[in-house]
Amino acid sequence: MADSKERAENQAIPAVSDETVEKRRLRDNMYDMITISVRAMDRIIIVLIVLIAIILAIGIIESKQNDLIKDAGQLSKIATADGKLATRVDRDSVIEYL
Amino acid sequence: MENTKSVNTKKIGDFLLNYSLYILLGLMILIVISINPKFLSISNFMKILTQASTRGILALGAAGMIVLAGTDLSAGRILGCCAALTASLVQSVTYASRMYPGITSDLPVFVPLLASIVIAVAFCMLNGFGVSKLHLHAFIVSLGTQLIAFGCTCIYIDSQKGGAQALSSFNQTFLNVVNGGFQFGSFTLPYLIVYFLISAMFMWVVWNKTPLGKNMFAIGGNTEAAAVSGVNITKNIMGIYIMAGVLYGIAAFLEAGRIQSVNTGTGLNYDLDAISGCVIGGVSFSGGVGTVPGIVIGVVILQTINFSLSFLSVNPYLQYIIKGLIIILAVSIDVRKYLSKK
Amino acid sequence: MGSSYEVAIPAADSSAAGTGGAVVLEMIDIDKQFPGVKALDHVRLVLKKGSVHSLMGENGAGKSTLMKCLFGVYREDAGEICIEGRPVRFDNPRQALDNGVAMVHQELNQVLRRSVMENVWLGRFPQKAGLISHKKMYEETKKIFDELGIQVDPNTVIGKLSVSQRQMVEIAKTVSYNARILVLDEPTSSLTNEEVGHLFRIINKLRDRGVGIIYISHKMEEILRISDEVTIMRDGQWVATRNADGLTNDEIIKLMVGRDLKHQFPENTNMPGEVLLEVKNLTGKYAPTCTDVSFSLRRGEILGVAGLVGSRRTEMMETIFGVAHRDSGEIFLAGKKVENKGSEKAIKNGFALLTEERRATGIFPLQGVMFNTVLANLRAYIKRGLLSDKKMRSDTARMIENMSVKTPSQKTHIRYLSGGNQQKVIIGRWLLTEPEVLLLDEPTRGIDVGAKFEIYQLIIQLAGRGKGIIMVSSEMPELIGICDRILVMSNGRVAGILDLRENRYENVQEEIMRLAAKYV
User: Is B207 a domain residue?
Assistant: First the structure.
């Protein structure tokens, strides 16, 4: 049986035959070492949710203001399907055309 | 034991975060309802589904590219071009300033549909050729195709005798085919929703039950392994792009009928909605992952957000911001799911 | 510690050197479960200050999984990690590094176009009044290099250095982080004997300064030379920890393998029959590739392909299979000329190619076992235009049984399976296409000993059924153990063919090495 010394000497250096293979191996190693931890990811997600909630709140409050203003004669804008901004006359007719 | 308690909180935490998008949506709907109870109605629900239909068909097409680890930024402009083509062929013969005054009787509806599909497939084959034969990145190729499609649309619309004007005033047959619905007593099920569901079912079969579908996942998951295992990469990529073209053509045809007026701006940014719907629906940008039901749900969720924000008359600029944040959230959740599988 | 840019090289602390020192790292009863696979089972490791502790085990024994738990890449399911008595858990390798636990990988992640000193101080460049001070960077770097005896100019572009030098820079970097615990992963796989000597000198210096070193390697000679203690793992379990003093090679092998070496290979009693494959003057089109390769393969024969790194064995296999372009030459299968233009054609003609790197070019990591099994054979499952789930499932079940694949279900994501089972799935994928000739490129690389034996059995069985098998391998014992003949390649050419059945060679391994060096 192969003497361990011979075995050790004859252990060929792992061949990296292809650039693609090398790139893939490095990429896999990189994924294994994604430096962002799950916990950091959690924090990011929570921040995003809070941000969305805040902006949503701003949007709703603003629209309520506009509702009051509209009664005083001013108009607000709504986006329609073709990207144009239509002045809002009647909310109901606008949501028909999203 | 100390350990199980912390493990349980961890499990709840994981669940909350992984599904936070859906929870957020649920809460949003509750808020909307509490502000204005009129939101909760069958007709609103139907509206959302109808509005999601054409976007959904577009998304089903674009999803193929995303699973292939690419993307498609030209979907919107292609839709615009084909919608313009459709519109020009379905204008009412009584409309004096129609594009083709030579047409004196309504064309059979399948003619504009076929024309729309053919042009869409042509554009998609251009994309597909660039990706499969020239090994260009899908992002870059579709960027180019996007501009080409837009140019074609402008030229086409401009070529009208009366100069560039929006194409509208469609014939009644066409409008019925697109905007009609199945009557069940006092309840109407819009055809658009049915078309969407049929498209979804068809794509589900393609993705799960045909070699093309399996090959798509293989190529997106590990292109080299697919190449070695007997998958014809070029043929399959072209196949996926052609499929997308068919869906784009159908979506364009229907969209023309839905919005009833097509101009050069039609289709702008539709691809972003399509891609967002896919991402929310779980299609991963790293390729090789995605399900048809996921896409359907993702698109409906996106449209629900659109609708409810407009329902509350939220400033449309803020709507853009919120939508953008939601997409980032969807991708973050995707990454987190990957990380927590460590 | 003063300003964070001043390096406090641990003062020489000879009281901690050797095996009698204080404990700096304890990994206790570490468990790690992946779906269907228990990667670590109550593993323990105790590292002493100022000592070199080697971690040994076959591929798949769990060494890298254990290290990944230490560095926070994985989170262990149970058990504790304590550093200097305090329990710790890192979220990522960066955090580990900031806490004095560093690793030098086999594949060095260095920014090759930047200088040595910039690489060392990446992310924490020494500053003077808000601007980066190159002078200070140079001095700090030189200080560490001098202490460790590294003869490298900190200003050199790191890409220009040899692998050995780059490795030393990496080690110096860990010193600059005041690493108390250093893990070296297969550090000598690319080094010459002289460079190994230099590395060991540095390790000794670090040892004298009280750094605890975990040394992962396969090379038993070196391990016995440099270690104070040796821990052996097998199949995810801790097997033994011994003092290196007095430990012998045979003992290590027995502990690692767990069975008598004599029975490492199943018996091959196949009698090769008629000629199945003839390759004549095969030359690949795009360099680097094989040149003028000719040989024949019989039914029932296992032909090994040996050679050094760079002998273009993989390229030859790829050219035969048709995924690499052929410039000239001919291939005959059972007398008929075949043109394998691409994998589709090759499969139709009855060829199969098991690629060298299953993670890169073999498995579809995001898919399940069934997907990975049936992918090459989809055509066979089309019933009335659609794929038949029933047929795919039954074929997969058949493969799982025939190959003894350990998997909880057909839907399990393949990346959760051990390397050996993954390889079996891919072999199963090929078997479904019913090939005549199987081209296997390093079929047992990265696979634990138990699975290796099963794969050898499989290969011999397949040969017994009349298939022709060509097997590229870098493990001599394997080639000698199961092959009928061995083709030795050198620099893209055929250097010679050794017929193990017909001839008795004095020393086969030497013959192979001699031939392998023929055209280099």
Answer: yes
B237 assigned to some structural domain: yes
Q: Which residues in chain A touch residue C91, judged by CB atoms under 8 angstroms apart? A: 37-40
Domain that holds residue C427: 357-434
Is residue C425 domain-shared with residue C486, that is, in the same domain?
A: no
Closest residue to B269, CB basis, from A24, A62, A83: A83
Report the distance separating Cα A50 and Cα B312, nearest Å: 19
Residue in A34, A41, A52 closest to B326 by CB = A52
C488 domain residue, yes or no: yes
Work out how many CB contacts closer than 8 A connect A with B: 107
CB B91 within 8 A of CB B100: yes
What pLDDT sits at residue A98?
72
CA distances from B280 to A83, B216, B297 (A): 22, 20, 8
C173 within a domain of the structure (yes/no):
no
pLDDT one-digit tens code per residue, B130-145: 999 998 999 999 999 9
Q: Give this complex's ipTM.
A: 0.81
- Which of B318, B326, B332 faces A58 most closely, judged by CB atoms? B318
Residue B289 lies in a domain: no
Is C128 in a helix, a strand, or coil?
Answer: strand
State phi, psi for C344 to the nearest 5 degrees: -60, -50
pLDDT digits (tens, 9 = 90+) for C234-247: 878 898 999 988 88
How many other CB atoms sit within 10 Å of the CB of residue A74? 10
Which residues have a Cβ under 8 Å from the Cβ of C439 and sit 6 or more positions away? C317, C320, C321, C351, C352, C353, C354, C470
* C90 within 8 A of C53, measured Cβ to Cβ: no
- Whether residues C278 and C320 share a domain: the answer is yes
Counting the structural domains of chain C, the total is 3
Residues of B in contact with C382 (CB under 8 A): 211
**Residue C31 in 3-state DSSP?**
strand
